[in-house]
Amino acid sequence: MSETFVSKNVSSKRIGLLGGMSATSSQLYYAELCRLTQRERGGLSSPDLILRSLDFATLEAWMTSGNWAAIAETLSHEASQLEAAGAEVIALATNTMHNVAAEIETVIDVPLVHIADATAAALNAAGSKTPGFIGTQFTMEQAFYLDRLRAQGLDPLVPQASSRSVINSIIFEELCKGIVQVESAETFVKAATELAFDGADSLILGCTEVCMLLNEDNTPLPVFDTTAIHCEAILNAAWH
Q1: Which residues are catalytic?
Q2: Exposure of 151 by Cβ count < 10 A (0-12 exposed, 13-18 middle, 19+ buried)?
């Protein structure tokens, strides 16, 4: 699942991380970036980054109403601000907001590390071709993410419509608020098992909070955690 780091020397580019989407996701990202940096560099090492935490309530309301133009404008502005503050590599600490990644890329002159590209690379490296995909309804039902995986030779499968709705509710009503419930974990495990029955050869945790419920120990498929994969890709971009 994981990538091999390209460099262990002490030089690095400063990371600009757009977070708050949700706050729980950003905490997972920061913890993982710190863990990986400590693992690779030792001592008192920690990642050189700027975190911009946004108010997810506003963005979620725009998502619900379909106002992606407002989201694109806001995140593009914030990415530009990160670059102006010295960020040399930018990343979105969220899967769903990559719906506006192209708009962000048009206003910055530094690389945007795309979570779907990092995930596809990890799957292809492992030889997985038909991954099950569990995330928000936006990522499971819209083309911006799944088509990016398909363009890199993958054939992703998503849960049935009724399951997608329940999964989405659990993500926004529980996981984004840091709430973990046994019943919700069972719902996610059931969805993963059904994807395996449908022919999935692996499982993408396609929402950055899904790792709170699913892992290698409770699913029937090899797990590709997009949060962990993305963090490795971000550090690779910063350390190259």
Answers
A1: 94, 207
A2: exposed
